[in-house]
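Cross-posted from the bioinformatics board.
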Amino acid sequence: MQKLKDIQQNKSNNKSVLVIGGGVGGIRAALDLAESSRNVILIDKSYSIGGLMTQLDRTFPTNNCDLCTVSPHLSENTRQIHLDIQPMTQLEQLTGEAGNFMATLVTEPRYIDMDKCTACGECYKQFPEAVRFTPGLDPRAPTCMRYPQATPYAFSIDMEKVIDIKALQKVCKAGAIIPHDTQKKTTVEAASVVLSAGAQLFDPTVLDNFGSGQFDNVVTGLEYERIMSASGPFQGDLVRVSDKKRPKKVAWIQCVGSRGINKADVPYCSGVCCMYALKEAMVTKERFAESIEATIFYMDMRTYGKDYELYFNQAKNDYNVRMIRSRPHSIIENNKTKDLSITYAIEEGLQKTEEFDMVVLSTGFRVPETTIELANRLGIELNTHNFTKTDHFNSVQTSRPGVYVCGVIESPKDIPETMVQASAAASMAASDFPIAKDVSLAENEFMPERDVSMEALRIGVFICDCGLEIGGVVDVDKMVEFAGTRPDVVVSHAVGYGCSSESMIMIEASIKENKLNRVVIGGCSPRTHETKFQDLLRRAGLNKYLVEIVNLRDQNTWPHIGQPKEALDKAFKLLHIGINGVRKSRSLMDYTLPMSPNALVVGGGVTGMTAALQLANQGIKVYLVERDSSLGGLAKSIRKTIEGDDVGSFMTQLVNDVSAHEKIQVLTRTIIVDHSGMPGRFKTGIQSGPRMNYMQLNHGVTIFATGALPNRPDVYGLGTHDNIVTQLELDAVIEDDPDKIKSLNQVVMIQCVGSREPDNPNCSRVCCQAAIKNALRIKTINPDAQIFILYRDIRTYGFQEDYYREARNIGVVFTRFSLENRPEVKVENDQVSVFVDDIILGSKIQIETDCLALSTGMIADDETTEDLSMMFHLPRTMDNYFLEDHVKLRPVDMSVRGIFIAGTTHSPKTIRESITQAYAAAGRAQTLLGKKEINLGAAVAKVDGSKCAACLVCVRACPYSIPFINEDGYSQIDPAKCHGCGICAADCPAKAIQLLVYEDDQILAKLDYLFGGLN
Amino acid sequence: MENFEPEIVAFCCHYCAYTAADMAGSKHIYYPANVKIIRVPCTGKVDTIHIMKAFEKGADGVYVAGCLEGDCHFKNGNTRAKYRVEQVQNILKDLGWEIERLEMINMSAGMGERFASTALEFTKKIKQLGPSPIKIINTEKHQQVAD
C-alpha cells in the first residue's frame, strides 16, 4: 500500500524538466535526468534526434565511431518510463519561474502515426520526393547513428509535395499515414529547462577568396566527413567531387571564418577545428592511402584538451601530416584539371604557391538567427558573440534562474566538454525540485512471474510478416506450418506486425490462454526489439528471459530479397535454431542490490567542495575527505580569473557553505587507507585527524577530485633570482603589491615551461590565458610596462581569444619560439636577461627584464593517483592523470561503476571548467543515488564450485579482474562486478563457468539442430 | 560438386558483427544465405566446443566475427577469440582438415558492406574446398549401409 502511495505522490510531485535540443548534449542531459528518476520532455525541431554528431564519420581522439559503444544505453528501460521525446517540436513561450515554469510547445505535423509505423521504408521508396528521411538517431531503435537505414521511425511526410494522398496511404501496409494530421500546441509544467540547441557551422560560400561553393574540390570539414562516411555520397570512398578520383594531395585551411576581423569573420576561436583537421588528415592516410599527402595550414595549433597534444604529435610524427604555419590568402582553380593552387605567406615573409587536388576548409561554429530568437523567447541574455551568457563560476547557469545551458550554444566546444556540461546542466536542473526516490512504475504494472521450472515445455511461435518486408520474400504460412510441426510447439501463429499494439495484445492473450512457457518471435532484429518482447512476457506473467527473437527480417529477407528460395530455406533453419534454443532457456533473475545512499568525495578543493555541496543540497549525505588541514586546494592561491572575478571571495563563500552544511561531514587531515565493496555499496577505510584514527565509511558512489600539482621545473633560472617567478606567484604579486607592479619596466613571460616537452608532452591548457590575464592586469596598473610573451602556440580557445586580441591591441608583444630553439635566461650582476630568436626579424634579441614570469602549468599528482588507482582499481593516463571510462562520451565516469572524477585530477583546466565538471560528476552520481537498488542484468558468469580446479585461468582471462579464488578454494565471480562478456566461460578448462543467458547448452542446442534435425 | 551449397556458421558478437549483419540487411546488400548467424555477447565467449560442435553437426565452414582489433566492447575479447581460432585451426590441421574452414574476421558495427563481402568471400572459399570431411565420411557410411 505504501508503495502505491509513493507512486501517486511521485506522479503529482514529479514535474518535468524540459530539454531543448536533441543533439548529444541534450540526449545526455535527458538520459541523466531520466536515470535519476526525473521526468523529461526532450524536444527537437528536427524530424529525429541526434544533432551534429550523426553527421560525423569518426571522432577524435580515438578515430572510432564512438557512438556505437554507447548507443545501447539508449535502450535502457528507465528512459521509457521517464523520457518523453518530441521531435518536430519547438518552444513557443516560457512563463513562470524556476520550479514552476509553464512551457508552450508547438509540434509540426508528421503525417505518420509513430505507434503504427514499422519503418519498413516502403513509402520512402515509392514516393521519395514527398517522404523525408532524416539521418539521425531514433532512441527507440538504438543503432549506429552513421547509417540512415539504422534509424527507423525517422520518416516524415512533406505534405506540400504529396500529389496523390490515397496512393501514398495505400503503400503503407501498417496504415500509419495520417493525411489530416495538424500542428499541435501543448502546455507543459516544467520545473526547469535545459537548453542544448547547439550551433551551426559557418558557411564559407560568403567568402570570395577560397572558392567555396564555386570550386568542386573545395569542401568544408563537415562535407569532407560526409565524403569519407560509409553513408555519405560516395559510399565511403574518398574521391574528388569533380572527377570521382582519389586525391593525392589534400590541404586543410584552419580558422576559416574564425579568429578574424574581416567582414564575414567572427573574432572568437571555435575550439574544435584543429583537432578535427588532424583527425581528418590522419583518417585519410589510415583508411585510404598512406601516400596521400596531407597538409594543414594553421595559425596556432590548439590541441589543448586531454592528451590532445599527443594526438598532434602522432599526426606529425607517425602520419607525416605536413604542418605549415600560415593563413593562406586565396585559392585559385585550374579550369581544366580542377586542381587548386593555394597562395600563402610563410612566417619569414616569403610568398608561396602550391597545387593541391582537394582543399578542406576548417569552419567553426556560428549561432544561427533561430537560436537567438529562441533565447529571446526563453528570456535569457546572450554575450557579445550571441552565445548564451552564463555565470562566471557556473558555466551552465543562464541569466534566468531555472534555465540551464549546455554544449556549443554556451561556447564553442568539443563532444567531451559538451557531455560534461550536459551532465552538469542536468544536475542543476534536477536541483530545482526535490529528489524523488525511484519507484519503478513499470515493475509495479507487471503481474507476478509464474514459476515454469517444473512445467513441461509449451512453446509458442509467432511470426511477423512485417508487411511485405518478410511476407513478401518468404511464405509466412509455410513457416507457421513448419514451426507447428516441431515438438513441444503448441501454438504457431502469423501475427502481421508483431510489434504493433494489436498483435502484442494478441500474443499476450495467447500466452495466458495456452499456458505457454517459452516464446519464439520470428521478426526483426533482437537488437532493436528484444526489450519490447521481454516486457510483453513480463506482462503475461513470464520471466523475460524465456523469449527468443529470430531475426527473419534484417538477417534474412532483407539481404536475400532476390533469392526467395534460399531465404525460405534459411528461414526454416533460423526458426529451428530459435525454437531449440528457447527450450534451454530458463527463468533468470536480474541482479539487484540495495544502494547505499551516501557519497564520498575525495579532495577538498574547489571541485570537491562544489560536488559535495551539489549532492548535499539534494539531501544526500556526503563525506568530504581532504588530506590537508583546511579546505581550498590550489584555487586558494589564485586571485582573479581572466574575466576579472574575485576568486578569493568566491572560495571563502564556498568553504563557509560546505562547512556549515548539515549533510556534509568534512574530514580534513584525512587519508584513505583501504577500499572494498561493490558499486552502490562501497566501504572505504580512512585515517583522520592528528591521531590518525581509523574509520570506515559506507557509500554508494565516489567522486575523486584530488586535483593536480602546480609544476615547478628547474629551468630558466627558476628559484635562483627574486625576479624569476611562476605565473601563479605573479598573480599574487599583482593583487597584493601594486607598487611593485608600477615599478616594472620590462616584463617577460615564457610559455610552455615544463609542458609540451619530451618528459611532459601534454599541454597544460591554462597557461596561455593565465599569462594574458596577468599581462592585462599589469597593463591596467602600469600602462607603460613593456610586456613580452614568448610562446610556441597561443591557445586561447573559445572566447579567451578576445583577451588575446585585447593584449595585442594594447601593445603586449608576442614572440614565437620553437622547441628546438628555446629562449635563454642569463643572470649577470643581478640583472635577469632573456635571449630569444625572433623568427620574423630573423635575429636574436636580448630583453633585460625586472620580472620574468614562467608559465609552468600543472602536472598530475602522481603519488595520489597511484595510491588511489591501486586501491580502487582505476586506470591512469601515461602522464598519471585518472583515465575516464570513455574519453569522448563518458568524460566523468570511471570504468568502475559508481566512481566519478572531476577537476584537474582528470586533466589541467581552469576553475570554471573544474566547477562544471564537479556539477557533472555530482549529476552522474545522482543517476545512481536516485535509485533504491541497482539492476545488474542477468547475463553474468556463474561458477560451479564443485567443478572448479582453481587453475586461475578465469582470473587471468577476465578483462576486468573480477574472478578471485575464495576461501573455499574455488573461483568466485561477483555478479555485481561482472560485465557479462563470457570470456572466462569460454576459457575455463573444466567448464565450471557458465554465462547466464548464453549458457553452453543453449548455444549447443542451437547448433545441434542447425542442419541435422531437418533432414 | 557443381551444386554444392555449403553450410556456414558465423559466431557474431552482439556489439559489432551482429550489428553489421543487421546493417547489411537494412541496406539490402546481398550475401549468400548459406551463412547462419549465432549471436554471442562477445567473440571471447566462443568456445572450442562451440566451433567443433558446428563442424560435427555438418558445418562446412565456421567463422568468428568480432569488433575491430583494439575496439572490443569488452576490451580484449576479440584478441582472445583470434587466439582461440588459431588453436582450433591447429586441431583441424592435426585432423588433416583444411584450416581455411575456420576464420577470424573483424569489423565494426557500421560495416554492413564488410559483413556482406566477407560472408561472400568466405562462402566462395568453402565452395572451392568442397564439403567438410565429416559430411564425406557420413555420405560414405550411408553408402556402405546402402550397399
